[in-house]
Amino acid sequence: xxxxxxLMTALSCAVAHWLxxxxxxxxxxxxxxxxxxxxxxxxxxxxxxxTQGFRPFFLAAGIWSAxxxxxLAGLWLLGRIACLVSALVPTGLAIAADLSxxxxxVAVVAREIVAGRNxxxxxxxxxxxxxxxxxxxxxxxxxxxAVPARLGWRLGLATVIVLISVxxxxxxxxxxxxxxxxxxxxxxxxxxxxxxxxxxxxxHAGLFGWAFFPALRAVGLLLLLGAVLNLWRLxxxxxxxxxxxxxxxxxxxxxxxxxxxxxxxGLSMLDADLPQSAAIHAxxxxxIGTMILAVMTRVARGHTGRDLSADRLTSLIYILVTLAAIxxxxxxxxxxWTMPLLIASACLWIGAFGLFTLCYGxxxxxxxxxx
Length: 371
What we know:
The structure is a single chain. The protein has helices spanning 2-19, 26-31, 36-61, 66-84, 91-115, 125-142, 151-182, 194-212, 217-235, 246-270, 276-303, 312-330, 338-365. It is built from 13 helices and no strands. The two termini are 21 Å apart. It has 2 domains: 1-147, no CATH class; 150-371, no CATH class.
């Protein structure tokens, strides 16, 4: 069932970018641009943690069924439709429909973690809860309620980056270590230690500090320090040794975008001449977009019995999303080239997610490879 979220997410990301400039259909998308946050939540939360981590426990408990996952998928889709037609339905109904997914997801996951005393995964409930709150703040602000300006989207973005930083620390060095060990490489990624804890602590403090105090220069310094520490953390994972396997290398590239985005965000808070939009798109089009496809392709191949190795088309997907991110960040700096770069970025982004859908759709909807 996690595969259903993978396909739904890929289609939503591609279609949203296709429709965003439409004069009529694009209006709700432009108004609810924060819809990218639930995309990432579903990709990094459900396929990675539910189907790979939580699901064995849930199935053993006899509770986490295909019907439950189908219900969550339906609620997620309901939220997307509610935002698309928000101008045609009562505001309260659209908000309730959109918030139904995070509310039900938190309730279900928390219940199962508590019932199974699986306390190690309890902190994962927090990002889903905060994303729901950020989502509500976005709706309230869009409908004229007096809330701190743009707090919702900053809080949502900060939460997603926090989730990526934690998730990456679990899977990137682990996958890299397993791959290098099979190749009899003795130089393996470093085990988690004080560097990882410090990198996460400083980064998370900086991100949430920016969410609530976006003009505080001290927060900018904190983000710069967090970027340096997370770059150090990334280098300890030996990404350079994975060049021969794009399925692994792309995970390291995604985390490199995270470090770059944090650095640009910190610099933008210290120097008014540096556009903050460059930092935002390094984190979104760069870190989030890359990690979405990195996780989706790996999950899809693993769940369908394919080799955990990227073929040429999968590598092309990674190239397209990387070029899309580069073009989007560059658009913030080149005034004369802004529109061509934006168009190029949008086309490359649609191409990446469209190609994923074409290549992996039949794989996910078809029978599992017996080999």
